[in-house]
Design brief:
This protein has 148 residues and is α+β, with helices and mostly antiparallel strands. The longest helix has 12 residues.
């Protein structure tokens, strides 16, 4: 299950190249999951788990799904800084295809655009390399003495 409206994607392609075409981002197509016996639910997220009753409630549809074993693999979400102005139109996070589209649209041809990236972990470093390769002027900001 994923709250995103598409099948699982290779997120490294977001930070390495800011790709946005789902056919280039998705790990597998819907037929793969179906033939493997996987019922993949998109556009939905869990809202509650009844551990004794072995049921998961879905937020959007209100449906309840039963299970024998439960694996929580919640993934990650970008941290938004608790700063005034963080919701400005020129401030972005990168986690989804939509985020990549927003960044691409904002940077246009990339040439000589000044970009500050807060975070020098894997994603920040990959994104800095990607943007610099497209012609942007990139500044990385991190709390570590050395990246990663």
């Amino acid at each position: 299950m994923s709250k995103e409206p598409y099948l699982p994607i290779d997120r490294t392609k977001l930070s390495k190249a800011l790709l946005t075409e789902l056919n280039k981002l998705q790990w597998r197509d819907a037929e793969f999951f179906k033939s493997a016996g996987v019922d993949f639910i998109t556009g939905e997220e869990a809202s509650d788990v009844d551990f004794k009753g072995k049921k998961v409630s879905l937020k959007k549809s209100g449906k309840t799904l039963g299970y024998d074993k439960l694996i929580l693999s919640t993934g990650g979400t970008p941290r938004k800084l608790p700063l005034e102005g963080f919701d400005a139109s020129n401030v972005f996070v990168l986690r989804t295809q939509v985020h990549a589209k927003e960044i691409n649209a904002a940077l246009g041809d990339y040439k000589d655009k000044k970009v500050a990236i807060i975070g020098t972990s894997f994603i920040g470093m990959e994104l800095a390399n990607c943007l610099a390769g497209k012609g942007a002027k990139v500044t990385l900001i991190g709390i570590e003495k050395a990246p990663l």
